[in-house]
Backbone:
């Protein structure tokens, strides 16, 4: 099992008309979101306007998990979904999507050749959390709190990227919310 410890890179922030996006991880590592040459990308979006329209991203499946605030997503001709913290919605990037509500979102974008899921894990101080590693790559994002993994301590905003593993044990140093992103890469 290989584990990478990551802190958000301030140079990977993108401002857009209605807020800010912070890239947490992109694969392959040399990919560029602006060029759309990634297989998958994981990011945070801080939506600072009450209403916004999503940028069309043809060929990309998106999964969005609400972290903070309230958000209603409307996918014209498909469905509308109201999200509360830790709810998620999956949709195609070429759908005409608009949102209502200021919020912070956790985003997973996958191109053909990759698929992924998001899962919220909550732990209390002193409790262990076991993350099953069944897919090609798993990213653990510490949304709130503090956890330890092996001999490392992870603070709010830190990430772990795990490849070739079966199981990962974390220990909550305080009450913590963790987002586990599991990515399956197809051959």
Residues:
């Amino acid at each position: 099992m290989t584990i990478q410890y990551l802190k958000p890179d301030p140079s990977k922030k993108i401002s857009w008309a209605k807020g800010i996006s912070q890239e947490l991880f992109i694969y392959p590592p040399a990919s560029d979101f602006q060029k759309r040459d990634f297989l998958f990308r994981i990011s945070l979006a801080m939506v600072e306007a009450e209403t916004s329209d999503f940028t069309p991203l043809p060929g990309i499946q998106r999964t969005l998990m609400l972290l903070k605030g309230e958000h209603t997503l409307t996918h014209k001709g498909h469905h509308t979904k109201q999200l509360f913290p830790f709810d998620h919605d999956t949709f195609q990037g070429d759908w005409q999507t608009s949102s209502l509500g200021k919020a912070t979102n956790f985003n997973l974008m996958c191109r053909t050749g990759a698929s992924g899921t998001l899962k919220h894990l909550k732990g209390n101080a002193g409790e262990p959390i076991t993350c099953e590693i069944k897919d090609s790559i798993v990213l653990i994002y510490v949304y709130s709190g503090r956890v330890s993994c092996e001999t490392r301590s992870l603070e709010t905003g830190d990430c772990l990227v795990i490849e070739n593993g079966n199981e990962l044990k974390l220990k909550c140093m305080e009450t913590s919310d963790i987002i586990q992103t599991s990515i399956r890469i197809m051959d």
User: Anything to note?
Assistant: The first strand starts at residue 2 and ends at 6. The two ends are 20 Å apart (CA to CA). The chain has a mean pLDDT of 93. The CA atoms of residues 42 and 74 lie 22 Å apart.
